[in-house]
């Protein structure tokens, strides 16, 4: 149950704020020109629909949350069919995409919904109705980030090509596209079956620089964390207990902290005293090493085999346990 709630924490927070949509800065209202009355009516219908939908469950109950999500998903699906081509439908497509991404077994339907939202925003000609929460400019960045987050790299590459063709000579857009292209290339290098690149980081116990290349010869669970990341702090006791069952069976662990300074990382580690090596990577998420490893958000995990080849990445909970157990093999039989 705890893992389920952690997986959906972002969704819960977004809907608690009344919308999962991107935040936009307030704009001064304008009188002229007026938006199409049909656009205004569609947006009003969406707001009425959202007001009538049940509030998000207060209790962390999986069944209640799934029922709530199914109700919203059905409502948004009906809305986009009844209001095709309207900007309000773009908002509904986005909300539908977020629900599908969180609750479906595969991300495809969610990505399709977000793509539908982007196409509506991209192709719209006219005056946007006042009160639209989804920004017409910049949504492609949200779509691209989502594609990269769920490892839909071929779709991300296709979107980047389209955006590059439309960028013209705009230096800011070209710079952003170059950054995203580099991030995509890094993710391709970090797919399962690829050797994980080496790096050096400061050992928090003062023993000297360490890196994943020091752990060849046995499987390694490589974690990237930070003290400022809520799940990193709250999950550390659980991860310590979990590791105690894996380490005797041959799994190595290395946790890499990306806090602004080494003392912040050391303070967190000192509280829980994990038995496996802990290191601090200078530069944080903006550092060259983090950028080369496509570390845009934390936590991140990579499971490596004894040769340093990536077996799986970005797993947690039951998925991580299954991957580790498959790599380690069955536990030894108890001795009489």
Describe this structure in words.
The structure is a single chain. A six-stranded mixed β-sheet has the order 1-4-3-2-5-6, covered by helices on one side. The protein has two domains: 2-150, no CATH class; 202-328, 3-Layer(aba) Sandwich (Glutaredoxin). Strand 5 and strand 6 (310-313) form a beta hairpin. It is built from 13 helices and six strands. It is an alpha/beta fold and 336 residues long. Helices cover 52% and strands 8% of the residues.
Low-confidence stretches: 1-26
Overall strand count: 6
Number of helices: 13
* Domains (count): 2
Write out the strand line-up for the largest beta sheet, numbering strands in chain order. 1-4-3-2-5-6
> Topology as H/E string?
HHHHHHHHHEEHEHEHEEH
Mean pLDDT: 85
Helix content: 40-55%
What structural class do the secondary elements suggest? alpha/beta
The value of Rg in angstroms is 23 Å
